[in-house]
Design brief:
Elements (H helix, E strand, L loop, with lengths): L4 E5 L4 E5 L1 H9 L3 E5 L4 E4 L11 E6 L4 E8 L2 E9 L2 H20 L20 H20 L2 E7 L5 H5 L18 H8 L14 E5 L14 E5 H7 L4 H4 L4 H10 L5 H20 L3 E4 L1 H11 L5 H6 L9 E2 L5 E5 L39 E6 L9 E10 L3 E6 L2 E6 L3 E6 L4 E4 L3
Parallel strand pairs: 1-4, 5-8, 7-12, 7-13, 8-11
Antiparallel strand pairs: 1-2, 3-4, 5-6, 6-7, 9-10, 13-19, 14-15, 14-18, 15-16, 16-17
The structure holds zinc ion (ZN).
Zinc ion binds next to β10 and α6.
Length: 435
């Protein structure tokens, strides 16, 4: 069954959520109207006073890429949502911008050593992590404005980064890292058998090599390092090790088993976990935190499959006996609000020019619609992507006379006169029911 429908009164105060069938009836009797489509919110014009009878719990399972949300009423899970963050994209575009800026500003200057007395303010989080917090907070606020939520329950998971690396670790070993008693190079020589890991050369100077290249976000962590001769190091460059060794599957397997899993997502969750609770406490007086172990225990006992929103539904004590009333979580993808760059950059960090020598503007603004608007429109005739009919899609690019959308993976442009209506204007998210 679908998610229950949010309901607000004519003063926009939250009312009890309603069954989708009841929502359809209210609309056909002209008692309520659509306030918002994703997620579905009704505005009840017959109800002037907030009269709630039920208690709602908002449950959150914060993750590095996906955050699950579930709303519980009594023992029923009436609403599920999965939010996909775009932390990695933010990191990539900021790294790119910093690279342009650094090269542009230092290109014709003498070398200056790095300033040492710069500190970050307390509580500072990297933009990619702050984005996770901000979007989670936005959705808590939205739910609270549409639904009388009394309690927020959050899974407060802490990953033991050393344990992820070595499940057997205990006691004193925590203070004795991988490098205990070694220098980095000695350790690597010992670990990889004093030879080039890619070609097996022994009597040649070996260089420290990043298995996942630094340019692709690989870290300096000891697990990501290996030794290679200069020739192999240059040959591999920034390629993925899977591509570089695609013809040597055995060697690839050996390297991948020796290189531990990346910890970036686990540390992203670790560093934001208290901040999420802090923000939730500013919005709701009753915030409870639960361990990740309890979530798993509940999920296994109830015999449910793992998904982000089911994990959220299984958070906390109240999840011991729940009924999932919804089979279809709403999938929300963070898309951002475009760019603030006034002019696009070329490869050297200078303004990119078009054929006539004019700077290329990144965002062309047309009055009729903008990128990210959800439109319901008519395809007047058959196209390669889809047959004629009525479709709903997110605008990819506004064009001079209309808009361009993606249907079945292909770009389709349509004139604005075939627009039936805007479902809603760009709010930085895309909404789906299946990934
Ligand atoms: Zn080699």
């Amino acid at each position: 069954m679908q998610n229950y429908v949010f309901q607000i009164d004519s003063n926009k105060q939250p009312l009890d959520m309603v069954h989708p069938a009841r929502a359809r009836k209210l609309q056909s009797q002209q008692k309520a109207k659509t306030f918002r489509t994703y997620p579905y919110v009704l505005i009840n014009s017959n109800c002037f006073e907030t009269a709630n009878t039920k208690e709602y719990i908002l449950k959150i399972d914060p993750g590095a890429t996906w955050t699950g949300f579930a709303i519980q009423c009594g023992q029923d899970i009436v609403f599920r949502m999965e939010l996909k963050h775009r932390g990695q994209l933010i990191k990539e575009s900021l790294t790119k911008r910093a690279g342009f800026r650094r090269s542009r500003r230092t290109r014709k200057l003498r070398y200056r050593p790095k300033r040492f007395n710069r500190s970050k303010p307390q509580g500072w989080l990297a933009p990619s992590l702050r984005h996770r917090l901000d979007t989670t907070e936005t959705w808590i606020k939205r739910f609270m404005s549409w639904c009388p939520i009394q309690t927020i329950e959050i899974e407060l998971v802490r990953f033991d980064l050393q344990k992820l690396d070595n499940p057997e670790i205990s006691g004193q070993e925590y203070q004795q890292g991988t490098l205990f008693g070694y220098e980095v190079r000695e350790y690597l020589l010992e670990k990889w058998g004093r030879q080039c890991v890619y070609c097996g050369a022994t009597n040649t100077p070996l260089q420290i090599e990043h298995i996942k290249a630094k340019a692709n976000g690989g870290s300096d962590r000891i697990g990501n390092l290996t030794l290679a001769c200069e020739h192999c190091n240059i040959a591999k460059g920034t390629q993925d090790v899977r591509d570089f060794l695609q013809h040597k599957p055995n060697l690839l397997k050996k390297i991948l088993t020796n290189a531990p899993k990346p910890l970036a997502s686990a540390s992203a969750v670790n560093s934001t976990r208290f901040a999420i609770v802090k923000r939730a406490k500013q919005l709701c007086s009753d915030v409870k935190c639960w361990s990740g172990g309890r979530t798993k225990h509940n999920r296994v006992n109830l015999g449910l499959l793992k998904s982000h929103s089911i994990d959220a539904a299984c958070v906390g004590e109240s999840a011991a006996e729940i009924n999932l009333l919804t089979e279809q979580p709403l999938i929300v993808l963070c898309k951002g609000h475009g760019t603030r760059q006034a002019v696009r950059c070329n490869a050297s960090g200078f303004p990119a020019l078009d054929k006539s020598g004019q700077p290329i503007k990144p965002k062309i603004i047309y009055r009729h619609c903008c990128a990210g608007d959800l439109v319901k429109f008519r395809l007047d005739k058959d196209r390669k992507a889809a047959i004629a009919g009525v479709y709903t899609a997110r605008v990819k690019t506004p064009t001079k006379n209309g808009f361009e959308v993606k249907l079945n993976g292909l770009r389709v442009s349509q004139n604005i006169k075939f627009l039936e209506r805007f479902i809603h204007r760009n709010d930085g998210y895309d909404y789906l029911f299946t990934v």
